[in-house]
From TrEMBL:
<dbReference type="InterPro" id="IPR029021">
    <property type="entry name" value="Prot-tyrosine_phosphatase-like"/>
</dbReference>
<dbReference type="Pfam" id="PF13350">
    <property type="entry name" value="Y_phosphatase3"/>
</dbReference>
<dbReference type="InterPro" id="IPR026893">
    <property type="entry name" value="Tyr/Ser_Pase_IphP-type"/>
</dbReference>
<dbReference type="GO" id="GO:0004721">
    <property type="term" value="F:phosphoprotein phosphatase activity"/>
</dbReference>
<dbReference type="InterPro" id="IPR000387">
    <property type="entry name" value="Tyr_Pase_dom"/>
</dbReference>
<protein>
    <recommendedName>
        <fullName>Tyrosine specific protein phosphatases domain-containing protein</fullName>
    </recommendedName>
</protein>
<feature type="domain" description="Tyrosine specific protein phosphatases">
    <location>
        <begin position="129"/>
        <end position="209"/>
    </location>
</feature>
<dbReference type="InterPro" id="IPR016130">
    <property type="entry name" value="Tyr_Pase_AS"/>
</dbReference>
Length: 280
């Protein structure tokens, strides 16, 4: 059995029905980044109901929109490129009371056929080294996009936000790791959060495979297509080591690539963390 074969549906539903997963009708892979203990401020946890991550939200239903407002989400940050939105016909929705900001990590020119062929080759390998190269590209291009989210956290502590890309795995996973690292969450918890996308994406498995079947590289290579589902803890472990050594970790990165100060970082930490006990 391939480790990326379909998961047992009963198991998937059981996991999706419990925290940190959040049910948002029409959206998959929705998680709350709250309730993680901090190692820099003992006795504090990341604030629940404030920071959410997900896959793209274009298919959100009216029930999903109502639930989003109930959760206190005032802003959605869309990390996808214009090219993706057009290609998959997944325009940004309109949600009363919620501001949707399009902040692409990659510009349109980063989606040339040559660039996409190289990127798909990396995804297709499923190897940690390939993902580290991909994630370095995301970090190198994503300072402006990630900065918009970080400044929201700095300036709007009472306004919940959700950020997403297409699948809610790579660009979204890097943004989640930056936030959790700044909050002092340990690497193991960050890696576990990353790996949960394997379950979070499962309801859209057929849709994803159908999309991939239209790409020449994946149409004739099922193994390569399956590797697009890769969300292994060890991948994030390897990335976090690379993040520390090349970029100076989250603090170094947000200073050098986003332009935040020590005071900004302290404000972000203060707004993310609250006194409390982690969820068991």
């Amino acid at each position: 059995m391939h480790d990326l074969d379909p998961l047992d549906p009963a198991y998937v539903q059981e996991v999706l029905s419990k925290p940190p997963f959040v049910t948002l009708d029409g959206v998959i892979n929705v998680r709350d980044l709250g309730n993680y203990p901090s190692t820099i401020e003992r006795g504090k946890i990341t604030r629940p109901g404030y920071l959410f991550r997900s896959a793209e939200v274009s298919s959100i239903t009216e029930d999903g929109k109502a639930r989003m407002r109930e959760l206190g989400i005032t802003t959605i940050f869309d990390l996808r490129s214009d090219t993706e939105i057009r290609k998959y016909n997944t325009p940004m929705p309109e949600i009363d009371g919620v501001q949707i900001l399009h902040i692409p990590v990659f510009k349109t020119e980063d989606y040339s056929p040559e660039m996409m062929a190289k990127r798909y080759q990396l995804y297709a390998s499923g190897k940690n080294e390939a993902f580290i190269e991909l994630y370095s590209q995301i970090l190198d291009h994503g300072g402006h996009a990630f900065g918009a989210i970080l400044r929201h956290v700095k300036d709007k502590p009472n306004e919940g936000c959700l950020f997403h890309c297409t699948a809610g795995k790579d660009r979204t996973g890097i943004m989640a790791a930056i936030l959790l690292k700044l909050a002092g969450v340990d690497d193991e918890s960050i890696c576990q959060d990353y790996a949960l996308t394997r379950i979070g994406r499962e309801p859209a498995r057929e849709k994803i495979m159908q999309r991939l079947s239209k790409e020449p590289l994946f149409a004739s290579n099922n193994e390569a297509a399956l590797n697009m589902f890769t969300c292994r803890q060890e991948t994030m472990e390897a990335f976090l080591k690379h993040f520390d050594s090349k970029y100076g970790g989250a603090t170094g990165y947000v200073k050098d690539y986003v332009g935040l100060s020590d005071e900004d970082i302290a404000a972000i930490q203060n707004n993310i963390l609250i006194p409390g006990q982690p969820r068991l």
